[in-house]
Amino acid sequence: MSKFYKVADTDKIDVIGDIHGCYAELTELLDRLGYDVDTEKGLITGFPMDRKLIFLGDFTDRGPEPVKVLRLVMDAVKSGQALSVRGNHEEKLLQKLIKGTVAKEEVIKTIDAVKAEGTDFVRQVINFISELPYAILCKNDILIAHAGLKENLQNVQTNDKKQLGRIKTMAIYGDITGRQLEDGRPERLDWAADYKGKRTVIYGHTIIDKVEWRNNTINLDTGCFMTGILTAVRMPEREIVRNR
Prior knowledge:
alpha/beta
């Protein structure tokens, strides 16, 4: 099994889309999903029996409370009650914290907020992101990746470095072409439109107006930092749940 993947031995999962620092919306959604949150400590204190909570990444930037989101997610994952994949914003945060790479203003604001919590918290964030897999495989052929994975990139047994590089790139950034749009964003193809894989793919990354199943895939990114709507899907029920 490639180190790029993590296995969750269950199909009873609640998958939450891109949070982007929207802590209030996250706690609302967790409540609707049946999780107990201690609002004073900012931690999940009660988990539904026999279910696994899974996050799609992109915890920070754009929204108002990235540190609160990070603390809640990190504690839930550390407790073993939750799992998460790595998003492109975690990757950016990690590179900035480790190497001091150039970052956009939204990332710099997150960096400043994280550093304001002290060196121990910075170290915890680095360790947390470094351990996040690029994809999670669950029972009943459910695959979870931040930006999705086309069927030809779902070979979890591969040791080919080039193939692993392609897996990582798509899982974090999507099906990018290498070209840029007029606004500077990378051009991404709508890979789900032609998806024919047997695995059910749950992903986010690209903001959509309407959450719906397409070719056995579902995108959960409803642009919470703009819309105030945070979305999850419950499996195997295929139930879409929103914070409001």
